[in-house]
Amino acid sequence: MKFPSNLPCSAVLDSLADGVFTVDRDWNITFFNEAASRITGIPSEEAVGSKCWDVFHSSLCDGDCALRSCMKDCGRISNKSIFFIHADGRKVPVSISAAPLVDADGHLIGGVESFRDLTDIQMIRREVEESYRFEDIIGKSAQLGKIFAILPQVSKSEATALLLGESGTGKELFARAIHNLSERKHGPFVAVNCGALPDNLLESELFGYKAGAFTDARKDKAGRFELAAGGTIFLDEIGDMPAKLQVKLLRVLQEKTFEPLGAVESVKANVRIVAATNKNLAELVEEGKFRQDLYYRLNVVTLKLPALNERVEDIPLLVNHFVNRLNALQGKDIDGISEDTLHILMRHPFPGNVRELENILEFAFILCPSGFIQVEHLPEYLQPKSKESTPHDDMPMTMEEVKCMAVRRALERNNGKKMATCRELGISKDTLRRTIARCDELGA
Description:
This protein has 444 residues and is α/β, with parallel strands linked by helices. It is built from 19 helices and 16 strands. The strands form 5 sheets. It has a 5-stranded antiparallel β-sheet with strand order 2-1-5-4-3.
């Protein structure tokens, strides 16, 4: 369908909510629509004729220009998050798309770039993050919502709590939240990793010792239970506790007393115990590796913490949280994460859970000098694979595998947007859904 000859193109472009501008091959702005003037604060008559970098002062103007890249490679860029400097001096976050401009004979004559103001979206994200903060725990997923709902009541009780969850799900963070919300919040919070210490050292660390208890025990030393008096002791990796110490811990839970190494009298244990493990304690009991009576003593209140891939909707909140924290810790001014980078993170399985996400962003902070974290700032294993290195290229494939590859690539090109993918492939939404499900079954 041809563009109507009697319809001025500039009128159409001025009606758009997104800013649009064009440049010639010498980077002089040749068109600047009304939205561009509104978003940048620079009148069209002032912008037209100026060099584009003199108008925008964007985070890409120092060398990584999106338009330059498009005009050089004759490619397109979509939804890249950057910022530019408004006429009043403030930073404006925008999402840009760029493409080269060619004349009727196919000769390059310049480039066109559109940009969408993300200020309101970022403000809403910040407000949402604050709304979904519980102590230092960030999340809005239904799984976390259930835990947030009962955590105050759990905290107020003196019952032993058992936290179950994969490594990196934030078990210590939840243990601290239980402590901070309890009547013991003014007492100490003492954390011990039961899997990180040798058996003999763990016993003396937990219960302390008296002078003369062993060769190097020249004076009394208080154990973690004594140091945690009036507060909470967090026993992480409780599933790795040796059998000998399981007996002593059971006595603490039953009689509220313990005996330091070499002591002849018991010491009262005025602590609340919160334990955690990433192992299946019930299976360990069946295998005879964990005491059944201790398991039932610990299993008074159990909270199962969801893995990050079970609460994908929390990833944007967590990303904002970590970006803000790393900015404060490292004295940087990173504006956030680009939309395409976030898209990659949303599809990553995160076997290391929240800890892995935090490590990824810490790595990106090293490579990203300012502006938004882009895909190239991610660790190598998260970088999109080039088409040349696609393992299927030189391998025989079934028709179903070919369909799966076509769907996957179309989804990538459309940034995961299913309706756009349906339009590109000419299939219905139900067909796309069934194909994706089939591909997941095949692992293709």
